[in-house]
Amino acid sequence: MDYLKALYIDPGTGGMLFTILFGLFGVLVFAFKTLIMKVKFHASGNKGELINEQKLPIVIYAESKRYWNVFEPLLDEFEKRKQKITYLTASEDDPVFNKKYQYITGEYLGEGNKVFTRLNLLNASLVVSTTPSLDVFQWKRSKNTDYYIYISHNPNDMTMYRMFALDHYDAVILSGEYQADQIRQLEDLRNYEHRPLEICGIPFMDEMRKRLEIAGKPAEHEKTVLLAPTWGESGLLTRYGEKFIDSLISTGYKIIVRPHPQSFTTEKDMMDRLMSKYKENPKFSWNRDNDNFEVLRQSDILISDFSGVIFDYALIFDKPILYTDAKIDLAPYDAYWLDETPWTLKILPELGFRIGDDNIGNIKEIIDNCIDDPSLAAGRDKARAETWAYIGEGTKRSVDFIMDRYNEVASKQNTKTVKAEDTSKRSRKKLSVSVKG
Length: 437
What we know:
By secondary structure, the protein is of the alpha/beta class. It folds into two domains: 47-202 and 392-413, Rossmann fold, CATH 3.40.50; 208-387, CDP-glycerol glycerophosphotransferase, C-terminal domain (Rossmann fold, 3-Layer(aba) Sandwich), CATH 3.40.50. Helix content is 48%, strand content 14%. It contains 17 helices and 13 strands. The chain has helices at 2-7, 11-44, 47-54, 68-80, 113-120, 177-189, 203-215, 236-240, 242-249, 263-266, 268-277, 293-298, 309-316, 343-351, 363-372, 376-387, 394-436; strands at 56-62, 85-89, 104-108, 124-129, 145-151, 171-174, 197-199, 224-227, 254-257, 284-286, 301-304, 321-324, 352-355. The strands form two sheets. It has a seven-stranded parallel beta sheet. Strands 10-9-8-11-12-13 form a six-stranded parallel beta sheet, with helices on both faces. Helix 2 packs parallel to helix 5 (113-120). The longest helix has 43 residues, at 394-436. The N and C termini lie far apart (77 Å).
């Protein structure tokens, strides 16, 4: 029986081995496809022509359906322009599959390593994504993809990602001038050539602003507080947890807690504990809607840390916020390279009031004062001017920029193909003369 014990694999290790084997299988499948493609290249004698024949023109990659609000305005505009787009998503229930597009093709990538296997072997002219850390972690630049564009899903600092997050993108679409200044500083510090940086505004915020104009103000309701923190060890729930929620409940106001979606994965034990302890009732609820429009519209004040939802709330809905002192260790982030406080942290005091261990006990009074303080409107105007350029024009400007880059790439590809064809013809002609001789 000892040999049976020696062969035993615990479930955790077995699951990990299965994941590795499954990933290797995916790699082998795509490697085999690549091999077949190479054989075709040699058989055709015209490699450049076959590369162009196989290439997808423009690809958009969404790592989750929660970024649908970022991409839907762009896809709608591409559809109007009759531009073919391949939309690759890591969510099987992504909203793209419910849209009746004619020129947009949605494709589910699968889970885990299958996603990166597909992306790392992608054959495309141009890729647009809101996912940082290209060519830093699992997602690598494909040698058969010519150009990568990053578009932000938040109107805050581009330096508050993990180090080198945007370094391997060929171009970046931004919402404000200060973001361009940050990227230029990083490029100079790292001795990089300057890349195209296009300030286009924020398409998804433009769309949400239109929705708000149509929906109007919510009906009369009891005072409602929305708690919407980010995830991670600097996040509000991680730092304060039950202490903060208990303080909010003690106000007697209606409380809605909307954790970051990543918390349910990365901080599952904490979320299970909190959701088990705090059951839903008429005065307290958890919100996990994919679309946050209604919960933002129905609440009177937002409490967060440094989550990007702060800017949706303050700039679109024009409402005050409370924020916690995040005490972020900038060492892992690009912001660490710059000798300045990140814009996100500098602007917070102009959008609302700070809350922490020293004043949580007075949270009801702080909420009331913040809601009634007229001076915060000026801070919201300032932030809006600095981080939300070209209000109402974001979609058109972003798609124009993407199409300009695509046309440049396609033009270069056509030039290379013509040269490859000429070289191939000359080679065949020489071979023919040699044979005849």
